[in-house]
Design goal:
This is Integral membrane protein. The protein has about 290 residues and is of the alpha+beta class. Helices cover about 25% and strands about 20% of the residues.
Length: about 290
């Protein structure tokens, strides 16, 4: 796309892509919330967040350059998403850190450069590496929830018309799995609840709903619950916690993924309780500015 100085004093970074690291929008592969994602990169959880610029130096080595000019990176991402060219060239004074490696896999490469590879070991710390998609763990679970949010219509179609409070079994994968390399997920849980007594057929889902109610009562770390645009005036919710992820639309059902259920996607019907819970979560969630 473009190049920017800043990897070393005399080198150039050939930019391949960029990401936002803000309270409302961060690579969830890095952690359950914004402070955890910052910590994974050795950064302070600065309130305005950061931009992550991923590219290669002139030798082909992978680098992630952290900048504090969030607006510049946001404009670049929006332009690329619209199919427009944008020369992302942050100035040196905006560079916070240059980290070896990439936290996510990048399919493209800079033309005319060697194949992407790790830079030479300088003994100053570990390199960033994409998560292993052949295993199931916290990172893969969060990536799976992100994929469901991106492909909501396809996942929702697999569930069909769920009865109030219940979920249908057999929601086949409508494309990519919960994480690349994961088994085809089957939906196998639901919820039927009231304010007085909640009855949930899956123990893990019951635990998630309880913890989500706890988030409403006492705010979790910033970014644990995030709200973004959805069609028809609804909002898309993403929430994470120890061992679980949830994605939901405020006008529809929810999907839950658990560390202890590799590759499984568990749809939760609305019932009498879920609408109120989703509304409360949306009210306390962080939103893109």
């Amino acid at each position: 796309m473009a190049g920017t100085d800043g990897v070393t004093d005399d080198d150039t970074l050939f930019v391949l892509t960029a990401l936002l690291l803000t309270p409302a929008q961060f690579p969830s592969v890095l952690g359950d919330d914004f402070p955890a994602a910052c910590e994974a990169l050795g950064l302070e959880p600065y309130g305005d967040g950061y931009g992550l610029v991923l590219g290669q130096d002139s030798a082909g080595a992978r680098w992630t350059v952290v900048v504090d000019d969030v607006s510049l990176v946001a404009v670049a991402i929006a332009s690329w998403d619209c199919g427009m060219e944008y020369d992302l060239s942050p100035s040196d004074r905006t560079v916070v850190a240059a980290l070896p490696g990439w936290p996510l896999a990048v399919a493209t490469v800079a033309p005319g450069l060697p194949e992407p590879h790790d830079p030479e070991d300088d003994g100053e710390g570990p390199r960033l590496t994409p998560p292993d998609t052949d295993i199931w763990g916290a990172a893969q679970r969060r990536m799976g929830a992100d994929e469901i949010a991106l492909q909501w219509a396809s996942w929702r179609e697999q569930v069909g018309d769920t009865p109030e409070g219940d979920a249908e079994d057999g929601a086949d994968t409508p494309g990519a799995g919960a994480a690349d390399g994961a088994d085809t997920p089957d939906a196998e849980a639901g919820a039927d609840a009231s304010d007085e007594e909640r009855t949930v057929s899956h123990e893990g889902v019951a635990r998630v709903l309880k913890e989500l109610h706890g988030y409403v009562d006492e705010a979790p770390p910033t970014g644990r619950v995030r709200s973004s645009f959805a069609p028809d005036g609804a909002r898309m919710l993403r929430a994470d916690g120890p061992g679980w992820s949830m994605v939901a639309r405020t006008d529809d059902i929810a999907f839950v993924l658990l560390d202890e259920e590799p590759g499984e996607v568990l749809p939760v019907g609305r019932g009498p309780e879920l609408p109120g819970l989703l509304k409360a979560l949306d009210m306390m969630a962080v939103r893109p500015s």
